[in-house]
Amino acid sequence: MKNELKERHLFFEDIYKNNFEKDENIPWAKMQTNPFLQEYLESNLVDGKVLVVGCGLGDDAIALELAGAKVTAIDISESAIAWCKKRFDGFETDFVVQDIFELPQDMLRSYDFVFEAFTIQSLPLKFRDKIITAISSLLAPKGKLLVVSNGKQEHESFDGPPWPLNINELKLFGMKE
Ligand SMILES: C[S@@+](CC[C@H](N)C(=O)[O-])C[C@H]1O[C@@H](n2cnc3c(N)ncnc32)[C@H](O)[C@@H]1O
Question: Residues 15-52: pLDDT tens digits?
């Protein structure tokens, strides 16, 4: 398991590192707020402590900061985080190199709102349970979670990446502590 996770880490790090500041070469980077987050922010107040998981190039984190939140944004890729810091110099969002599977104690149950887009589906299915548990562990009591992912029917199988989520996997978020 560890080797496979390391491989995924290197996959992401290599893409960001080899294409530093060439966002046209990062397949998932839109360089704008995720439209589902944008829509959410138009009708919901998000303040307090916010965590963005797998923040990529940082646009969603900055949208949340501009909405009034105190934002921490994590990504496993050192180059992605360096790129975010360069792009958003002068903003208050704390961009941090952090593996979602190695969260420090002080991040646990700490966030009023957690946002993730396309990170869960970017990891092989065997890590699904583990990442759902890890993301759930970030939420403070009554904290809210917004997940953006491709979806699939339960019976469909995908030879990822990506590995879309089905409705039953989404429901697991409500069942984790
Ligand atoms: C498909 S990209 C999506 C990035 C961003 N959320 C977006 O929508 O543009 C998945 C992101 O998850 C990050 N990632 C992968 N494994 C991770 C892990 N174990 N911990 C934290 N971030 C991880 C990758 O480096 C990458 O930036």
Answer: 999 999 999 999 999 999 999 999 999 999 998 999 99
What distance in Å separates the CA atoms of residue 74 and residue 51, rounded to the nearest whole number? 8
- When divided into structural domains, the chain yields a total of 1
Q: Quote the domain boundaries for residue 92.
A: 2-175
Q: What CATH number is attached to the domain comprising 164?
A: 3.40.50.150
DSSP 126: G
Q: How far is the CA of 73 from the centre of ligand 1 (A)?
A: 11
Q: What is the DSSP string of 79-110?
A: HHHHHHHHHTTT---EEEE--GGG--GGGTT-
With a 6 Å cutoff on the Cβ, whether 80 touches ligand 1 is: yes
Judge if the beta carbon of residue 29 lies within 6 A of ligand 1.
yes
The pTM score is 0.96
